[in-house]
Structures are given as structure tokens and as C-alpha cells.
């Protein structure tokens, strides 16, 4: 069965777009103004809205989150022969740009208390690599499902070893750590506005730079590196990574509604907690103290010693009832494409993959919707006992 036929009959999607009148009106305004190219006033307004939301940095709108990672790597001077550390438990788009720019990803395990990069492991690995004179040039840190690890510590470790920190905050726009927005801690931060993220432009991304000068450089590289000259002059090669002004119009309305969407996703998560917490062996994705999550996805783990049904079987059961659930990201070191990649750490990411499940988490879910989903979950999980 292909994906399209599977999707027919889905009533509760994992994380569908949540748009309304304001998105429609900005989009039509952009259309009617004839600024339908990857230039125009909504791009600037969208970038400024993100800057003012996160409270620091210089934002550059691009065509997707992966393009923003690519620009961050390029501007960090990453190229052939370099290594870049990356958590294994993530979506492939965190690591693929590393390979695309000719460098080699090295994968690190997570810890159970954050589901994210284990800072003890990072410290140990950097000490080891340093002793061998093999320090990586950069670390791409990921804030999984809108949660994060101890960023103060990780920033300190990177600084100590002179490792550039790139934050893949694709899933965590709106998540704060000790009051500061994720995406602002690293040398560069990136957000994704892909269709299932907390806010969407249908497809899009944002790069956050520390200085205006770096943002200008990113804009230059994202628009085919055209030199200032009376003709098309190129000293170096760039990309066509621009975002359409039409999509920026949707994005602006989405940022303006971001806090409301976080509030709704938080309510969904808490309702799951209330209605499922009686199930022994079922655990929720944790948040470290100091973290205020954006609640992008509500994720659980199922203890195999308690439940007979595997997450995959539970997922299939839910899907058959029109409820879209997904397994957690399959770790990068388990992917055939990264068969030969170097990796460090234990099997936390493998264990999370084997036991975890993402539940419908969208900001348009009603209380009744969540109750229906919990009833279905209770039903399938009880069978296992
Ligand atoms: C979605 C996502 C990306 C990629 O974003 P695109 O906009 O689809 O390119 C990168 N990293 C993580 C962790 C993601 O979840």
C-alpha cells in the first residue's frame, strides 16, 4: 500500500498545518501586490517577526531548514576533510547537509533524561579526539520534538574546544532554555517551516546569524552569489535557496500565532498525561528543568516488559482507526546510508527508537479528539496485558 492510499481515512493527523483567516488575508495581500517572487515586503516582515519573537540574532528566510543548515556549515568553513558531530537520534536532514558539503558526520548517543545529546558523552568524545589531534570543526545539536539538553553545559564544552555550534532548532521554535530561545545559543541556529512543524509556510526555513554581516553573507550565498557588478559576475558559487514572498506572508501570520499554538499543543500533551498516566509502563517524553518546551510532538515510550504490543503494532492499530501515529526517528547510525559512519556512545537512541511512539499533537486537536485517541490507545494497550 502506498502512502497516499494509507492516508485516506486518516482523521487525526500527527501534526497538520493550522492556518486561518490571517494567513489567508496576508497571502492574498502578497498575491494582489504582485510580489510573488522570492523578494518582497513579507520576507522582511517575516524575518523581523522571527527576530523579535526570539529576541536576538539576525534571521534570513530560506527555502527549507536543510538549506539553512547547509548555509550554516558553509559559513562555518566546513568542507572536505572536516568532521562534524551530530546526535544519532534525529531526522536525516540534520546530517545530510554535512555529507553534501563534503564533510563527514560522526554520531553521538542521547541520554534518557533529555532524549537529546548526552553532554557527558560529548565532553568525553571531545577530550578523546583532542588527544588524538582530531577535533571536529563543528557540532550540530538538535532539539528533538521541542525539548533540549543542557545547553549551558554544551555551549561551554564547545567553547572550550573551539568547536563551532550549529543549532538544528527545526523542531523547537518557541522552546526556551533558562528563558532564552533555542536557536540563539549556537554560532548559527536554524528553524524549519515544513508542513508538519509547529508553524509552517508549506515549506521553508530560517537561518539565525549572530551579526548583520553574517546574515548579509547568507543572503548572498542563498541567491547564487551574485557580485555587485553591472553584469552577472561570480567569484564563488552559491545556491538558489530563497523563500517566496507568498510563503513569507503565510509565515508572518503563523509567527504571530505561535504562542497560541504552543499553548494548544501544551494542553494536548497534558490531556494525554491525564488520560494515560494510569497505564503502568507508559512514559512521556521528559523535559529537563530549565526547559520550557514548545510541545511540538507528544511522544511516549512503551515498556516491552509490560506491553505485549510493540510500538509498530500499536501504530498500525491506531492507523486502522484513522489515527496517525509514528515511530520515533530511526537513529542515523542504524541507517544503511550511514553504515560506515563513526559513532560514540551506548544504545539510548536505539532503545528510544525501539520503544517510542509519536501521537497526534496538532494545535487544532480538540479535547474530544484527544479523548478518542486516548480511548483507542487504552483499548490496544490493554489487550497486551
Ligand atoms: C524537519 C527537520 C529538518 C529539516 O527541515 P526541512 O525544512 O524539511 O528541510 C531538519 N532537522 C530536523 C531535526 C527536522 O525535524
Describe the protein.
The protein is globular. It has helices at residues 3-7, 21-32, 41-54, 65-75, 96-100, 119-131, 151-161, 212-222, 245-256, 258-276, 311-320, 348-355, 367-383; strands at 58-62, 83-87, 104-108, 138-142, 164-168, 176-177, 180-181, 188-192, 205-209, 282-284, 291-292, 298-302, 326-327, 343-344, 356-359. It folds into two domains: 3-15 and 259-384, Aspartate Aminotransferase, domain 1 (Alpha-Beta Complex); 21-257, Type I PLP-dependent aspartate aminotransferase-like (Major domain) (Aspartate Aminotransferase, domain 2, 3-Layer(aba) Sandwich). It is built from 13 helices and 15 strands. It has an eight-stranded mixed sheet, sandwiched between helices. Strands 10-12-15-13 form a four-stranded antiparallel sheet. A three-stranded antiparallel sheet has the order 7-6-11, with no helix packed on it. The longest helix has 19 residues, at 258-276. Helix 2 (21-32) runs antiparallel to helix 9, helix 3 (41-54) runs parallel beside helix 9 and helix 6 packs parallel to helix 7. By secondary structure, it is an alpha/beta fold. It is 38% helix and 15% strand. It binds pyridoxal-5'-phosphate. The site of pyridoxal-5'-phosphate (PLP) has 14 residues, from helix 4.
Amino acid at each position: 500500500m502506498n502512502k497516499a492510499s494509507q492516508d485516506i481515512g486518516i482523521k487525526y493527523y500527527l501534526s497538520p498545518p493550522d492556518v486561518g483567516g490571517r494567513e489567508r488575508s496576508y497571502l492574498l495581500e502578497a498575491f494582489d501586490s504582485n510580489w510573488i517572487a522570492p523578494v518582497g515586503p513579507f520576507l522582511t516582515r517575516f524575518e523581523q517577526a522571527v527576530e523579535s519573537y526570539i529576541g536576538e540574532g539576525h534571521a534570513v528566510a530560506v527555502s527549507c531548514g536543510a538549506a539553512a543548515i547547509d548555509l550554516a556549515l558553509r559559513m562555518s568553513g566546513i568542507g572536505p576533510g572536516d568532521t562534524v558531530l551530530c546526535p544519532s537520534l534525529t531526522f536525516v536532514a540534520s546530517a545530510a547537509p554535512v555529507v553534501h558539503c563534503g564533510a563527514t558526520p560522526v554520531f553521538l548517543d542521547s541520554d534518557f533524561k533529555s532524549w537529546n545529546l548526552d553532554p557527558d558523552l560529548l565532553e568525553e568524545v571531545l577530550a578523546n579526539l583532542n588527544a588524538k589531534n582530531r577535533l571536529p570543526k563543528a557540532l550540530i545539536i538538535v532539539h528533538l520534538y521541542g525539548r533540549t539538553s543542557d545547553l549551558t553545559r554544551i555551549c561551554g564544552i564547545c567553547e572550550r574546544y573551539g568547536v563551532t555550534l550549529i543549532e538544528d532548532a527545526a523542531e523547537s521554535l518557541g522552546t526556551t532554555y533558562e528563558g532564552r530561545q533555542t536557536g540563539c545559543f549556537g554560532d548559527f541556529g536554524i528553524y524549519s517551516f515544513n508542513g508538519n512543524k509547529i508553524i509552517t509556510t508549506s515549506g521553508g526555513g530560517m537561518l539565525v546569524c549572530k551579526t548583520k554581516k553574517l546574515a548579509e553573507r547568507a543572503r548572498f550565498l542563498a541567491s547564487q552569489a551574485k557580485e555587485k557588478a553591472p553584469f552577472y559576475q561570480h567569484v564563488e558559487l552559491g545556491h538558489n535557496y530563497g523563500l517566496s514572498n507568498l510563503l513569507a506572508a503565510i509565515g508572518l501570520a503563523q509567527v504571530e500565532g505561535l504562542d497560541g499554538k504552543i499553548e494548544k499543543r501544551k494542553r494536548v500533551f497534558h490531556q494525554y498525561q491525564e488520560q494515560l498516566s494510569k497505564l503502568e509502563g507508559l512514559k512521556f517524553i521528559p523535559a529537563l528543568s530549565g526547559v520550557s518546551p514548545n510541545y511540538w510532538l507528544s511522544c511516549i515510550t512503551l515498556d516491552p516488559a509490560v506491553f505485549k504490543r510493540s510500538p509498530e503494532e500499536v501504530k498500525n492499530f491506531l492507523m486502522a482507526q484513522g489515527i496517525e501515529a509514528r515511530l520515533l526517528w530511526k537513529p542515523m547510525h542504524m541507517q544503511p546510508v550511514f553504515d560506515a559512519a563513526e559513532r560514540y556512545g551506548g544504545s539510548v537512541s536505539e532503545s528510544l527508537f525501539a520503544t517510542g511512539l509519536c501521537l497526534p499533537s496538532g494545535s487544532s486537536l480538540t479535547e474530544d479528539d484527544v479523548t478518542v485517541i486516548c480511548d483507542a490507545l487504552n483499548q490496544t494497550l490493554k489487550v497486551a496485558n
